[in-house]
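Human: I would love a firmer grasp of how sequence relates to backbone shape in proteins. Take your time, and here it is.
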Amino acid sequence: MSTLSAPRFTGTTALVTGAGTGLGRAVARAFAAEGASVAVAGRTAATLDETVALIEKEGGTAAAFTADVSRADDMRALVERTVARFGGLDVAVNNAGVLRAAGSPVGDLDPAEWQAMLDVNVTGVLYALQAEIAHMRAHGGGAIVNIGSNLGAHVRLPGTGGYAVSKSAVSALTRAAALDHIAEGIRINAVSPGASDAPMSLRPGESHEERAARLTSPLGRLTTAEEVAAAVLYLASPAAGSVVGADLVVDGGVAA
């Protein structure tokens, strides 16, 4: 997947949550293509195994670990298992997220759906950060990239209030953590994608063509998962060594 002659992540270990499908899978494959050993994590073993199989078919190294980001114990165990399998943890991408109650005005939000988004999209990122930081601060630092969204801190759309709030919190949490931990050698940034060619952006029963017609951007097309993954890899790489607390929007100009 990479066109670079010198892989940027050879000899490193990357952990990607929500790596069973969509953007998380694309990020995991991109890291593996550039030499990283990749721990792919999520709640569904079958899809994680599919990601590992794709990476191995492409000549990469990966292992699957089931974990629920909304459980602090799971996140601590995930980091421990990753380190035990690959010998360390250099990069983490906190990608797991859920979109619930799409189309519901704020006044009609189901409290259970609201809570589910907060549990995964906000508290899940916190638990992941805490587990990753605990290891990295004791082993010379590392790089962390949180996956936010252009919805929230950058763009507002009717009927997306609950999701927008949760992803706005990811942006704020990223900046707070970046300031708190850069002195320990841990660089923390965020990527905020717009709608991309990933399963989350498809409505029930919607075709890819119908989605493309519905989701327009100044660019004139959907962002690809690979383009978002490229932004993630840049922020995790030494080339971004002075980038701290950034929230990089990748949405074809929607938030411009």
Summary: Residues 13-250 form a domain with the Rossmann fold fold (CATH 3.40.50.720). The chain has seven helices and seven strands. Strands lie at 13-17, 37-42, 61-66, 91-94, 142-147, 186-193, 247-250. The longest strand covers residues 186-193.
